[in-house]
Amino acid sequence: MTKSINITLNVWRQKSAGVKGGFETYHAANISTDMSFLEMIDVVNEQLTLDGRDPIAFDHDCREGICGMCGAVVNGRAHGPEEGTTLCQLHMRYFSNGDTIVIEPWRAKAFPILKDLAVDRSAFDEIIVAGGYISVNTGGAPDANAIPISQEIAEKAMDAAACIGCGACVASCPNASAMLFAGAKISQLALLPQGRPEAAQRALAMVRKMDELCFGNCSNERECEAECPKEISISNIARMNREFFKAGIGSAVM
Amino acid sequence: MLDAKIPSGPLSEKWDKHRFELKLVNPANKRKYNIIVVGTGLAGGSAAASLAELGYYVKNFCIQDSPRRAHSIADQGGINAAKNYQNDGDSIWRLFYDTIKGGDFRAREANVYRLAQVSNHIIDHCVAQGIPFAREYGGLLANRSFGGAQVSRTFYARGQTGQQLLLGAYSSLMRQVGAGQVTLFPRREMLDLVVINGQVRGVVVRNLVTGDIESHAADAVVMCTGGYGNVFYLSTNAMASNVSATYRAYKKGAFFANPCYTQIHPTCIPVHGTYQSKLTLMSESLRNDGRVWVPKATGDKRPPNQIPESERNYYLERKYPSFGNLVPRDVASRNAKAQCDMGKGVGETGFAVYLDFKDAIRRDGKDVIAQKYGNLFQMYEKITASNPYEDPMMIYPAIHYVMGGLWVDYNLMSTLPGLFVLGEANFSDHGANRLGASALMQGLADGYFVIPYTIGGYLAQMDHTEVTTDHSAFKEATQYVNEQTGKLLSINGKRTVDDFHRELGNILWEYCGMSRNDDGLLKARKLIQELREEFWKNALVPGLSEDFNQSLERAGRVADFLEFAELLVMDAFERKESCGGHFNEAHQTEEQEAMRDDENFCHVAAWEYKGDDTEPGRHKEPLVFENVELTQRSYK
Amino acid sequence: MNWFTNTLWTSVGKKLLMAVTGLFFCVFLALHLVGNLTIYAGKDAFNSYAEHLHSLGPLLTAAEWGMLLFALIHICTGLLLFYQNFTARPERYAVNKRAGGRTLGSATMPYTGVILLLFVIYHLFNFHFVDKTHTTIFQIVSTAFSKPSYVVIYTFAMIVAAVHVSHGFWSAFQTLGANHPKYTPFLKGLSLVFSLIVGIGFGFIPIYVSLLV
After folding, report:
1. Which of A230, A103, A216 shows the shortest CA–CA distance to A160?
2. Rounded to a whole number, what is the distance in Å from the CA of C18 to chain A's nearest CA?
């Protein structure tokens, strides 16, 4: 049932990277419960603009839960209270009239704040640069059906590959660790026969890069798995660990 | 007369012959060339990666914070290839023919044939990249049939094929970043193109974090900036999708082809409020098992489960017995609109039709349906709070893709030497209507398998006078961009940019949407002109230019949409026929099907910018069909 | 040794160190508990267990030094991880809410760890570094637990140990890469059972002994 609700927002406002930020309070009236969370912010921003105030900066793009651009910590939960959902797919029907909603950006040393709720996640790209690929040049591939891959393996790889790189795992991890992100990519490529030739190199390089970027360490708290909008399992972290030990101790790769 | 530079010879040998005839760049010389690639979607990402692999030095720009976010990621359904793994009669020729026919005979034969040819290599390459395509129990790749095709040629990775293919291209791209062959410039928006001595030699971009205007010089520019569907405000495109890059290239002399060819996707979640910021597509694959219907009686407001079978109108199955629910997108969309216009529409607004899985669930069991569409059903339920396993989905058409784009020749080069245009940003392969699962195919074909060859042919013969960003053309472009942003920030009016955008969208959807007529188009043109005038007097763009200013970003895009929309409407007005996504009410068969005018309109319309106050010029590229016979599309 | 430090001195490597040493201490706890349980068989059984243990001589010394090394690795790595994890988020959230992954054990690992460290030192000074020439281990134990403060401290410490182990046990397997849809639920269950055994098994001894006297 569509309803209209009135809510209060406590939003983190910060002019730019490195400066001090703080919370500001806004009232949002007549918010339809069919709105998405971001549409609600749009409405608040339209009003702020008309009032001659600076609208809230926030990252967003596809608004269908797949690009991974959006994200904020809503009442202490990355992407808000609903499980398996990005912020853009969170709807206002999860809130009640009179609620106060606290909105904070992802917080991690590796994700510096750019403005308000927008953060710089280029550290994720750097982890991929370190080895999140299969070294295959365009043109040289054999026939796609040359190597059969069992459905079970393909499905597991797909489970890991579903990562949208939104950063919720880092944001929700009590240690701001990126192991679910790195683990998902290492797992996807380690599971597939095409990724095996570089598996050792990849695991070592990606883990080392992750450390270099000042992400925290995993302490198996499983918050990442609980908050991941694509519900990626920490079994991928375990697989990454295996790959890493195999590579670090068992392989000849330095 | 536009020369598409189509190679001579039999259709199936053109590409091979052309590849042989193209000049090669000496491997040692490749590293001396700088290439700018704008965009990191399937076309941009794959082009940047492949060019870097060849040894060119590439600068790659994207509007989002990471190349992995380009909107190609949102494709759900799949990618076509003529592998014929299913032994069901597919071939390169059939994929070619289906695409030409699906495009309502408004695409170039040679381009489409090449597309079908390289489609197989794409799948090979993607599997080698580690893309977890769906597989059969035996471990071989699975296929499904997809909107409008009678063979199973679509490869897919659950409902996230676009995401997986994009991440594949992204991973190849990042590998080249690591190798130092590609320099990445995220959070940059291209605001102008720089042409020096008749050759495109660079771009001017705005750093969206700092607001700095930056100049970048190169030997060629490859634009892969996607489609302009957001001119309609509500579309399935991402929020940042825009026309600015291509439109500014148009203003610098690149011809814009067929802007009126816009695709309306039949299976989107219906609009439910004025605050709505975008529409969400439900994959077309749903039509494989879902049955489309409306109540037979006008204004029947009973819940769907209480409407007995005999009082339901499965209008697609009835009208098109052989294709049924799988008719092409334009046909499915127009029929949904027709039903709603007759007052048969369902839901609160009356602008929706049912897509029912009851029979499929009864036939195959809930588990099978959940396995096929689980994530789509989940997404639908999240947005609408209604459970599609229990109640039929409600769907309505929405703008989804645009076939129009910058005109390119067979080499994918625009009318500006040195400017190549790939993917949705160009106009080349889909004619007047794109078939399902062909967008991914085209983006990757252009980027992986066409541009690496054709750009060499250009570079090998271009004028290599060295150009730096100190050149006056860069200064002028920077000045123009600064003036433009300055103007936007100084209007200081009373209406927000989104408000203008929403109104523009309403005008286009009303008069230049699923069906068009001359009066409406003329009216739309006038309304757009008035709205544009008001925009420059009354828009409110807050903030500074030297800042992370999302309002300013949007304002610039909407300003371009307001100009471009007029071109779109003019193109629709001039095309006095119905074809594919362009349906002119004056040109329809007795059964309300689109009626082409092959005698007068079997051509590409390419528009030339001639100044802000001068009417643009309409150029024709005649379409010559040597291998297929033009027929009335029939899906009965 | 470059590859060696390059492997162990990473985030995953440090986890490995924590897991291996942690599991070692789990084994130690189990053995220690088995030994301690002899107390229920009476004074003589308990004393003879201690004597047997001490008769191992150099083997015992080696084990003690080994344990010290493992303890140092576990403690130092743990503290380093704690510090790194803390600095990985310089600005904390104003609102924190669990999503369902965190448990009491997982959230308190560093704190329960430090408490256990203090307890172990205390414990060693109570029962290990004492002059045992004119007394038996049973006497030392029963004297100690005749004081209610000892009982309270020991019982509390054992609850803390149980909490620490409840996360540590399965977490070590996860870190070592042992995550399997078939066996992980079992390991998680075992983790809980083991922590209960540790908590109750050790925790009840001070109470039992204090009731004896």
Report:
1. A230
2. 10
To which H or E segment does residue B154 belong? strand B154-155
Residues in a beta bridge with A73:
A78, A104
Q: Tell me the C-alpha distance between A29 and A43, whole Å.
A: 9
Say yes or no for a CB contact (<8 Å) between B275 and A136. Answer: no
Residue C213: what pLDDT?
Answer: 66
Residues A57 and A128 in one domain: no
Q: How far apart, in whole angstroms, are the C-alpha atoms of residue C13 and residue B79?
A: 41
Distance from CA of A66 to the nearest CA of C (A): 21
Q: CATH assignment of B264-399?
A: 3.90.700.10
> Does A42 reside within a domain?
yes
- Same domain? For A126 and A228 the reply is yes
- Which one from B69, B153, B248, B329 is the annotated catalytic residue? B329
CB atoms within 10 A of CB C178: 16
Class of domain B472-619: mainly alpha
Q: Are residues A245 and A132 in the same domain?
A: yes
Of A160, A233, A228, residue with least CA distance to A192: A160
Pairing of strands A100-104, A4-13: parallel
Q: Is A104 on the interface with C (CB under 8 A)?
A: yes
Q: Are A162 and B449 a contacting pair at CB < 8 A?
A: no
Query: How far, in Å, CA of B561 to CA of B242, rounded?
Result: 8
User: In this structure, which amino acid lies at residue B500?
Assistant: F
pLDDT above 60 (res B214): yes
Residue A211: which of C10, C95, C99 has the nearest Cβ?
C10
pLDDT at residue B147 greater than cutoff 80: no
> CATH number for the domain including A43?
3.10.20.30
Domain edges within chain B: 264-399, 472-619
Give domain status of residue A110, yes or no: no
- Annotated active-site residue B329? The verdict is yes
Q: Tell which A residues from 60 to 99 touch C, by Cβ distance under 8 Å.
A: 73, 75-78, 83
Per CB-CB distance under 8 Å, the chain A contacts of B158 are: 158, 162
Nearest by Cα to B292 from B343, B331, B235, B263: B331
pLDDT tens digits, one per residue of C82-111: 999 999 999 999 999 999 999 999 999 999
Facing residue for A148 by CB, picked from B139, B278, B498:
B139
* Residue C22: count of CB within 10 angstroms of its CB: 25
Domain boundary among A75, A104, A133: A104
| Helix ranges, chain A (H) | 37-50, 122-131, 151-161, 168-172, 179-191, 199-212, 223-227, 235-245
The answer to whether position A109 is within a domain reads no
Is there a single domain that holds both residue A96 and residue A186? no
B470 burial type by CB count under 10 A (0-12 exposed, 13-18 middle, 19+ buried): exposed
Q: Is A42 on the interface with C (CB under 8 A)?
A: no
Average pLDDT score over residue span B198-227 = 98
Chains A and C share 3 or more Cβ pairs within 8 Å? yes
* Mutate which: B19, B40, B69, B554, vs A, most A CBs within 10 A: B69
Asked if residue A138 is part of any domain, the answer here is yes
Report pLDDT digits (tens) over A128-153. 999 999 999 999 999 999 999 999 99
Q: Which residue range forms the structural domain that includes residue A94?
A: 4-104
Parallel, antiparallel, or unpaired: how do β-strands B188-196 and B182-185 relate?
unpaired
Out of B74, B186, B542, name the one closest to residue A62 (CB).
Answer: B74
Hey, what domains does chain C have and what are their CATH numbers? 2-89+105-212 (1.20.1300.10)
> Residue C1 pLDDT more than 60?
no
What's the gap between Cα B426 and its chain centre? 9
Please indicate whether chains B and C are in contact, defined as at least 3 beta carbon pairs under 8 Å. no
Q: Is A135:A202 a contact under the CB 8 Å cutoff? A: no
B239–A141 C-beta distance less than 8 A: no
CB contact under 8 A, A62 and B125: no
